[in-house]
Amino acid sequence: MNDIYLVSGSTPDAERKRFRITFANLDDVDALVALHLQCFSGDDHIAVLFGENYIRAVYKWFVIDPKTFVLVAKSENKLIGLTALADRPYGPPMLLATKKEALRTLLKRPWLAFHPELLIRLFRIFFPKHKCELPGTIAHIAFTAVDEEFRRMGIAKALKRESIRVCRERGMKAILTGVKKVNMRAKAMNENAGFVEVPELSTRRFFYLKLDLDHGDPKDQDSLGKKEQWVR
């Protein structure tokens, strides 16, 4: 995986910072957890309400399981961005892998068992609206996060581009991602990368978008902005 340069301005003497995208390993788990908690609240992600230890169990699973992976962006050994993917709907296997930590949390916070968002997610897991594709055919993006200090510098685009490349190498036929309806910037970024909205999968809170990897390369992203750019 290549080094990528951030340019935090449009002038010739703009500061350049280099970052590298690579696969996360167990040594990165603490940094993954810290970035997740920086970027997501309980309103964004129900798992946050289960606490730091549960989030740590989630990322350990994503790093270790052969059917999942996490790409990270690092600058000067600081983890500044991440995207986590699975080769199938990740809800059921993630719950199974993290059940011990989830049960410990529920014993301490029993009210979470009745949290509306948790009940909705469990219902969708066990009673899906649509038949799921076979494991190994469609990759599912679980989380994408970028450190607040490094946002709008093209890191999310670089992670997206690299995740598409890796999914192609792993023989995936498509990639599916969910985007909160209030996050139109993320929706536009995915559409610029070739993702297309799948209206029948959308919910009250989320758009779902899909990139078909069987139909040639995704759209060639122009990652230049008015005030910032990243280049390989």
Walk me through what this model shows.
The chain is of the alpha+beta class and 232 residues long. It has a single domain, classed as Aminopeptidase, CATH 3.40.630.30. It is built from eight helices and nine strands. Strands 7-8-6-5-4-3-2-1-9 form a nine-stranded mixed sheet. The N and C termini lie close together (10 Å). The relative contact order is 0.15. Residues 7-14 and 218-232 have low confidence and may be disordered.
Please render the helix and strand layout as text:
Blueprint: E1 3-7, E2 16-23, H1 29-39, H2 46-49, H3 52-64, E3 68-75, E4 78-86, H4 91-97, H5 99-108, H6 116-126, E5 138-146, H7 155-169, E6 174-180, H8 184-192, E7 196-197, E8 206-212, E9 229-231
Parallel strand pairs: 5-6
Antiparallel strand pairs: 1-2, 1-9, 2-3, 3-4, 4-5, 6-8, 7-8
